[in-house]
Design brief:
heterodimer, B: 576 residues, 2 domains, 3-stranded antiparallel beta sheet
């Protein structure tokens, strides 16, 4: 029981460190709004289908209407968001975690 | 399609699967052990392997069938099945990789430090696995019946036996290369016929789906009904009947079917003249081409059904037992992200094809709307549109792809389910694993034979709904919310998973239901997911003492980057 609490407080310290918090903040500030954003974008399709039927039924070319093009765009957007996430993680998250590691390794012997 | 070619295609795939299983045992022990050596595999191979395991009978046959029957609304299935990976990538994959937990029960135990929650998670994994296996077996029956006319249980039994043999011999699934090959086989098996089909369609003057009327038989056609169906006739039509219609026997006589419902007995052939509207089976809606191409027309309460489908597919993917484990085969987070990007590309490329089959099916195989066997559209089209030997070869190719889909997905699932049954429910050890494998395969096989015939993609959708209303709250709250308590997790899993399972059982064993009851039961996610989240949060807040002691340590392990050299502890599941 006591060892466990000691361990916990050590991890509490790591977790409370400003750079670790910054890392979590950066991750969350990107991931949560983007998740909400892409859910809204998918739900927009449903909303348009429900309340803008004329628009969705507009024939663009041949038998392809706006709804089908929207449906195709959902695939494309899924891929684009994933690509954006990978870029964000490579550029914003990984350098910070590398720096964090450098500092931790510099100060401690771990 | 001639039975001979189709059967040979099945035999080739089955023999290949068994051989690979037999030799794979040696291979997997020496060169490509799943958890270790595959870490040196490139993202493309890894992503192909994920795709190979993920694309099941529902993707290969089911989506095209549902698009044929219900139209544009069903595009949400592939979009959701792809989007589910996105949610998994952004919210769950990185912390879960760092947790060191290989399975969902492992994660439950590591995060909540409770064996009770672990056991509950195990039961849910088994339920979801069974629910996902059942339609694979049913579809195998459908395929064999389509090519040979034999009874439906043969195909299911065949796949079940091959999977059991493979899992028991320990091969197949563990090899990234084989799963990767399966993806490319499935893609080829759908894509190559599409080229020929589109050429044929072009040759027919590119008939469109722009009429403001339900589909008609463009040529005189003879439809054979294999099981009794009840169909609705809209306009009086004179048909030639051999067999029994509305209880009246006929031997090639001409009968006029009046508007209204008609019962056609099993093994009856009905000849329709050209231009006759297609009578629809009572369970399917009659849609004009315009309605078909527009969203929110297919099913009862389409707005609710669509929202529910989106929730189930987007949030359910993260809770599928055979999906998560593949994320461990990447050396680090960066490679895992690359892999996910490639997976999304591969799945997106694959999922464009069923839409083409569905649309062509409406033009060329509308009789499936009458027999209700819309899942057969992918198998039927090549023979119908491309005549002669080429058509038969393409049909055989599609059949081979379908069997590859059943075998790869079923093997992956059976291993996951058998592992959980053997470890967490039986006593563990080799003998338990054998018993567990038999349980993992026979229960869904029995279900497949007993349950009423449902569209394969619908049943798989139900498995997603159960996963979304149990594991999604557990993972999301477990990773992002420190105050989740063991009691809260337990209550949420019980309520969400339980309610969704009740809906599933009602749909599989009873029904068909109509109106709001039908919509709420067929697509439960929209109400079960919020309930599950609410219960988990409220009960956790009421039991603050149940928050595990090591939560700070677990949280650091989940959220500190892998490259960060802190002592994250080496957690091992207690039960292994």
């Amino acid at each position: 029981m006591t060892t466990r609490q000691d361990e916990s407080s050590e991890y509490e310290r790591v977790q409370a460190g400003p750079e670790f918090q910054e890392l979590r903040r950066r991750y969350r500030n990107w991931a949560f709004p983007v998740t909400v954003g892409f859910l809204v974008w998918y739900l927009l399709y449903v909303v348009l289908s429900g309340w803008a039927r004329g628009f969705m039924g507009t024939q663009v070319f041949g038998n392809v209407n706006v709804a089908l093009i929207f449906g195709f765009l959902q695939f494309v957007s899924t891929f684009l968001i994933a690509w954006a996430y990978a870029r964000h993680a490579d550029k914003k998250l990984d350098p910070l975690s590398d720096k964090l590691r450098g500092e931790m390794e510099g100060t401690s012997n771990e | 399609m001639s039975a001979g070619l189709g059967v040979s295609a099945v035999v080739v795939v089955v023999v290949a699967a068994i051989l690979i299983g037999a030799f794979g045992l040696r291979l997997s022990r020496t060169t490509s052990d799943f958890y270790v050596a595959s870490r040196s595999v490139s993202p493309l191979w890894n992503a192909s392997a994920i795709g190979g395991e993920y694309l099941s009978a529902a993707s290969f046959l089911g989506i095209a069938g549902l698009i044929l029957a219900y139209g544009a609304d069903m595009l949400w299935l592939p979009v959701g099945w792809t989007g589910g990976y996105l949610v998994l990538l952004v919210l769950v994959s990185a912390p879960l990789r760092r947790s060191g937990a290989y399975t969902l029960p492992d994660f439950a135990e590591a995060r909540l430090e409770s064996m009770a929650v672990r056991r509950m998670a195990s039961v849910l994994v088994v339920l979801i696995g069974w629910l996902y296996l059942m339609p694979q077996f049913q579809s195998a029956g459908l395929v064999l019946r389509t090519i040979t006319g034999g009874p439906a249980w043969v195909g299911g039994l065949l796949v079940a036996v091959v999977v059991a043999v493979n899992v028991l011999s320990g091969g197949m699934r563990s090899i990234t290369f084989v799963q990767a090959f399966q993806y490319w086989l499935k893609l080829t098996a759908l894509a190559l016929p599409v080229v020929f089909l589109l050429f044929a369609w072009h040759g027919h003057g590119k008939p469109g789906l722009g009429r403001d009327a339900p589909p008609v038989f463009t040529d005189p056609v003879t439809v054979t009904v294999s099981t009794e169906v009840s169909v609705r006739v809209e306009r009086p039509v004179e048909v030639t009947v051999s067999g029994q219609v509305d209880g009246r026997a006929a031997r090639g006589e001409r009968i006029t079917l009046r508007p209204g419902p008609h019962t056609i007995a099993a093994d009856t052939t009905v000849g329709f003249p050209a231009g006759a509207p297609v009578p629809h089976i009572e369970s399917l809606p009659v849609l004009t081409d315009h309605e078909w191409a527009l969203p929110l027309h297919g099913r009862e309460h389409p707005l609710y059904a669509t929202y529910s489908l989106i929730l189930a597919t987007f949030l359910g993917t993260m809770g599928l037992p055979h999906v998560l484990v593949r994320f461990y085969t990447n050396p680090d987070g960066r490679a895992a992200r690359r892999t996910t990007l490639v997976v999304l590309t591969l799945l997106g490329a694959f999922y464009l094809l069923p839409a083409i089959y569905g649309a062509l099916g409406r033009l060329y195989t509308p009789e499936l709307l009458m027999t209700g066997r819309t899942d057969a559209v992918v198998l039927t089209l090549p023979g119908r549109l491309v005549g002669g030997t080429a058509g038969e070869l393409l049909g055989a190719l599609v059949t081979a792809g379908a069997f590859a889909a059943f075998l790869s997905t079923s093997s992956g699932l059976a291993v996951s389910v058998a592992g959980v049954i053997g470890q967490d429910i039986l006593r563990g050890g080799v003998r338990s694993f054998r018993a567990a494998t038999l349980l993992a395969v026979t229960v869904p096989l029995a279900l497949a034979m007993a349950a009423r015939s449902l569209a394969v993609a619908d049943v798989v959708g139900l498995a997603f709904a159960v996963a979304a209303s149990s594991f999604c709250p557990l993972l999301v709250l477990g990773i992002w919310w420190r105050r989740l308590s063991a009691a809260g997790a337990m209550a949420g899993l019980l309520t969400g998973g339980g309610l969704a399972s009740v809906a599933v059982i009602a749909v599989i064993t009873g029904g068909p239901y109509t109106g709001w009851t039908g919509a709420l039961l067929a697509q439960p996610a929209a109400w079960t997911v919020p309930i599950s989240f609410t219960v988990m949060i409220v009960v956790s807040l009421l039991t603050p003492g149940g928050v595990p002691l090591g939560v700070a340590r677990t949280m650091v392990r989940l959220h500190a980057p892998e490259t960060l050299n802190v002592n994250r502890g080496d957690w091992r599941p207690r039960s292994s």
